[in-house]
Amino acid sequence: MRKKISIVIPVYNEEENIRPVYARMKETIRAIPDYEFEVIFVNDGSSDGTWAEISGLAESENGIKALNFSRNFGHQAAIEAGLANAGGEAAITMDGDMQHPPEIIPELISKWEQGFEIVNTKREETEGISFFKKIASGIFYRLINSISEVHIESGSADFRLVGRRAMDELNRLTEKNKFYRGLISWIGFESATVKYKAEKRLGGKSSYTFNKMLSLARVGITSFSMLPMKVILLFGALLFFGGFLLTAGMVFWRYCIGSALFSGTGILAAFIIMNNGLFMVMLGIVSMYQINMCKELQNRPNYIITEKINLS
What we know:
17% strand, eight-stranded mixed sheet, 50% helix, single chain, Spore Coat Polysaccharide Biosynthesis Protein SpsA, Chain A, alpha/beta
């Protein structure tokens, strides 16, 4: 009996890319006849004709399954929905813009068959990537790895294979702000890495805006590191004792020695400004954690599915 592999493809406004991506995917999986494949498109609330393209393709092609969200819930939610509905013994998650080449799927499966429950990919080079995005990506990975409890490989993306055991553990996680690059490292399991060269985007514009990059970075940092809060406590304690000694020294210098070197009003104003700035920074960082806590307490679903194709 052939093993079944699920391929999960989250898409958002990829009207131009659906059929070309599937055509190239089809060529790849045809060359691996020892396995059965299901391709699950997850439409993340696209505002163009993406869902119509998926629906039309599903009518003419066997093995295509699809989910349609009521609105845009985000890339991580789309991955979550795809994995929750995947029926394969392993699942491969990849983007629908052709920057994740289907041609390395056989290599991912080969590593899995060697006993690796998780097979990650590492992007060595990306065609057409902007200088800003390249720098921002590098800063993000250096930052999160320096403060996080888990290690995330630089150049990694949500292009990977996960075996059934790892998939089941990921599906059991109930947190609302999922960051799969971190969760993959957190759950453990033996893993391998396959390197690839990311191609240019096939068509359309990237929906991965600067705001979405910041949101993903926030979730990644607050989900896997308590270091910012620890730094705040340490910095606050040092500032308190430093400020106490500084204030006591100034008072002694001005009123006991009688020197007018320091203006009382100037010293007070500087001290107040410094403390107000510090409190604003601390409240801002703490608020990031409180946002996550609020979402967990609200217990809203991470996504809402309005339509399914070839899925019960």
